[in-house]
Amino acid sequence: YGDYNQKIDYVFKIVLIGDSAVGKSQLLARFSRNEFSVESKATIGVEFQTKTLIIDNKTVKAQIWDTAGQERYRAVTSAYYRGAVGAMLVYDMTKRQSFDHMTRWLEELRGHADKNIVIMLVSNKSDLSSLRAVPTEDAEEFAQRENLFFMETSALEATNVETAFLTVLTEIYRIIC
Ligand code: GDP
Ligand code: MG
Questions:
Q1: Which one of 16, 25, 26, 97 would you pick to mutate in the ligand 1 pocket, going by the greatest count of ligand atoms within 8 A of its CB?
Q2: Which spans of this chain does the record mark as coiled coil (predicted)?
Q3: Which residue has the CA at smallest separation from atom 20 of ligand 1?
Q4: Which of 27, 35, 40 is the pocket-test mutation for ligand 1 (most atoms within 8 Å of CB)?
């Protein structure tokens, strides 16, 4: 039903990056299928999910790529970044190290991707804010300095997940179309 025979006006590739266990796969599951699983297995093999939506009366297919357990430094291949017009740079707000690593993920992203790529810094697991290890101001300052969008999300509670992806997709649409 529905998207049988649907005309797609645009396909936007978006990549998820960040340390292992920050919640990339669950953010993707939440956005693409409105699902969350507590015992998510490490992703095996490069995988993407798609979600088709309407922006400004156009049919946009978001093709969102998830890392294949390649989160070790420099293990993500250039094919992963190729053609990406958007990126979600994800850390776990309860793990300071995952935020500290954003600098090198961003460096790697900028080394591989198009210079106009739209980037969202995502502070995930906001449902665990009592265990917060990264003040919002630190992230805001980093995002502002690096010219990134910024949002705090919870894949578990479905907080801001759709907004985060839609913000990136709408901005890509604004730039490209
Ligand atoms: P990835 O390695 O970055 O893909 O991380 P996963 O999506 O596999 O998630 C790693 C772990 O964090 C899993 O146990 C998830 O259930 C959990 N997780 C992911 N997102 C959230 C969230 O928003 N809140 C909480 N409390 N746990 C989460
Ligand atoms: Mg994963």
A1: 26
A2: none
A3: 23
A4: 40
Q: Give the residue among 10, 88, 5, 22 at the shortest CA–CA distance from 51.
A: 10
pLDDT at 6: 75
Ligand 1 binding pocket includes 16 (Cβ within 6 Å): no
**Is the CA virtual torsion 127, 129, 131, 132 positive or negative?**
positive
Q: Dump pLDDT digits (tens) for 72-117.
A: 766 778 889 999 999 999 999 999 999 999 999 999 999 999 999 9
Strands, sheet with 47-55, edge to edge from the N-terminal-most edge strand: 47-55, 58-66, 10-17, 86-92, 118-124, 149-152
Q: How far is CA 82 from the centre of its chain?
A: 15
**CA atoms of 46 and 157, how far apart (whole Å):** 26
Interval 42-76: pLDDT, tens: 555 557 899 999 999 999 999 999 987 777 766 77
Residue pair 91/19 in contact (Cβ under 8 Å)? The answer is yes
